Amino acid sequence: MNKYTERIYNGIWKENPLFVLVLGTCPTLAVTTSAMNGAGMGLSTTAVLMLSNALIAVLRNIIPEKLRLPAEIVVVASLVTVCDMLMEGFTPDLYASLGIYIPLIVVNCIILGRAEAYAMKNGPIVSFFDGLGMGLGFTIALVLIGALRELIGAGEIFGFHIMPSFYTPCSIFILAPGAFFVFAALTALQNKLKMPCATNGDGNPEIGCNGNCLTCGFMKPKKDN
């Protein structure tokens, strides 16, 4: 596996931003009322992630240390503005459904986190693929949650009727509580299967933590030499 493929695999599975690192939960819970909304938010975030990672990696040796965070925000905000305008022009229905959460991509922890943790330390090409992997991982997670909520709450997926005629939709799953129910169920399943997640770690900072700060070696103060 070359380093570019490894960055994509890392974002989709090993360090999935939602299921493993538990980042970006606010837009996740808010917009996943349907699989289409999840796909729209995920793909727009992916585009911003790829381009922001690449641009910040190109500028990493030019940006002064004290201006690092403001510079990252300016780059991300510029890209989100372009994305917002394109979605309003070409996908107005989806744009209306996502609403304020498109501009709020600017402060998404996933984007700023990857810019700070990865793009500032690596070249533009590998940073681009890191953004692609993280974006795809986020998109898959959003679509999965949105599809489950839409299926249970409306009997549909991507607007296509799936459930049999006698099925009575449980509309609460399309409302706010449904997002918490589905996210909690997927997290419980993830822990049951011992899949990568913050609470199934071994103290390795690459996958978050081991779920117990008291025993985490990374949290213990270092002794003076």
Which key terms come to mind for this protein?
two-stranded antiparallel sheet, 8 helices, single chain, mainly alpha, 225 residues
Secondary-structure topology with pairs:
Layout: H1 3-14, H2 25-31, H3 35-59, H4 68-90, H5 92-98, H6 109-119, H7 124-154, E1 156-157, E2 160-161, H8 176-192
Antiparallel strand pairs: 1-2
Helix pairs in contact: 1-7, 3-4, 3-6, 3-7, 4-5, 4-6, 6-7, 7-8
Strand content: under 5%
Number of strands: 2
Strand order within the widest sheet?
A: 1-2
Rounded mean pLDDT is: 87
Unreliably modeled segments: 210-214, 218-225
Largest sheet: 2 strands, antiparallel
Structural write-up:
- This protein has 225 residues and is mainly alpha-helical.
- It is built from eight helices and two strands; from the N terminus they run H-H-H-H-H-H-H-E-E-H.
- The N and C termini lie far apart (40 Å).
- Residues 210-214 and 218-225 have low confidence and may be disordered.
Condensed summary:
The protein has 225 residues and is mostly helical. The chain has helices spanning 3-14, 25-31, 35-59, 68-90, 92-98, 109-119, 124-154, 176-192, and strands at residues 156-157, 160-161. β1 (156-157) and β2 form a beta hairpin.
